UniProtKB/TrEMBL annotation:
Keywords linked to the UniProt accession: Amino-acid transport, ATP-binding, Nucleotide-binding, Transport
GO term, biological process aspect, one: L-amino acid transport
Organism: Pararhodobacter aggregans
Name recorded for this polypeptide: Branched-chain amino acid ABC transporter ATP-binding protein
SUPFAM superfamilies according to UniProt: P-loop containing nucleoside triphosphate hydrolases
Domain of life according to the entry: Bacteria
Family as reported in the entry's similarity comment: Belongs to the ABC transporter superfamily.
PANTHER family: HIGH-AFFINITY BRANCHED-CHAIN AMINO ACID TRANSPORT ATP-BINDING PROTEIN LIVF (PTHR43820)
Transmembrane stretches, start-end: none
Record domain ABC transporter: where: 5-237
PROSITE patterns in alphabetical order: ABC_TRANSPORTER_1, ABC_TRANSPORTER_2
Molecular function (Gene Ontology), one example: ATP hydrolysis activity
CDD domains according to UniProt: ABC_TM1139_LivF_branched
């Protein structure tokens, strides 16, 4: 059974404000799908709608055979959607290990916690060295890695990353994207939201340009590189 994430004719927003309009896309299982576009045009809203953090007004979201639109956020997580939001959002006075273990709170994830923790430490070896360190004392890049590691601990079917490079120094961004590229090579299903279009396009299997809540363009990273008018008009590149 396919674990594609399929979004059909989606509309969502906040209060009386509509942000997403008739949005349709497919994020294929085992692939990295990137959502790019200017700030304030609906990228984070899309992830929140998928996660059940905001209501879907019309349309449908399915993960494989499961319809997840309309479910509460905790039920969406239980179906296999893992959302790593912008910023750190760690428990600042807990250790790295305690923060990671919070990702395995569902029974299915808890049963394989030790195995998955070892996989996280293999992927992010610095976290093993820091496992007893209090989260608030970590560097920005280390906190971001803990956030990604905590998401992986949930053993989900789709990992959604919202602006993982936000606010980080260039050398740290390189490290974070090496991790994401490793996840892609391992066949993880990833939905990546990123303002840095070329950074995302370099590792994505499919790229979607979101403009004013609708998809303006879709293609591969190489195809995006060959569309300078899109890069200049929408992304300031």
């Amino acid at each position: 059974m396919s674990d594609d994430l399929v979004i059909s004719d989606l509309a969502a927003g906040y209060g009386h404000q509509s942000v997403l309009h008739d949005l349709t896309l497919r994020a294929q299982a085992g692939r990295l799908t990137a959502i790019i576009g200017p700030n304030g045009h609906g990228k984070t809203t899309l992830l929140r709608a998928i996660s059940g953090l905001i209501a879907v007004r019309t349309g449908e979201i399915r993960l494989g055979a499961d319809r997840i639109s309309g479910l509460p956020a905790e039920a969406v997580v239980a179906r296999g959607i893992v959302h790593v939001p912008q910023g750190d959002l760690l428990f600042p006075d807990m250790t790295v290990l305690e923060n990671l273990r919070m990702g395995a709170f569902l029974p299915a994830a808890a049963r394989q916690e030790k195995t998955v923790l070892e996989e996280v430490y293999t992927l992010l070896p610095k976290l093993r060295d820091r496992e007893n360190q209090i989260a608030r004392t970590l560097s920005g890049g280390e906190r971001r890695m803990v956030g990604i590691g905590r998401g992986l601990m949930a053993s989900g079917r789709v990992l959604m990353l919202d602006e993982p490079s936000l606010g980080l120094a260039p050398i740290v961004i390189e490290q974070i994207y090496e991790v994401i590229a490793g996840l892609r090579r391992a066949g993880r299903s990833i939905l990546l939201v990123e303002e840095n279009a070329m950074r995302a396009a370099a590792i994505a299997d499919q790229v979607h340009l979101l403009d004013h809540g609708t998809l303006n363009w879709s293609g591969t990273g190489a195809e995006l590189s060959g569309r300078p008018e899109l890069l200049e008009t929408y992304l300031g590149v």
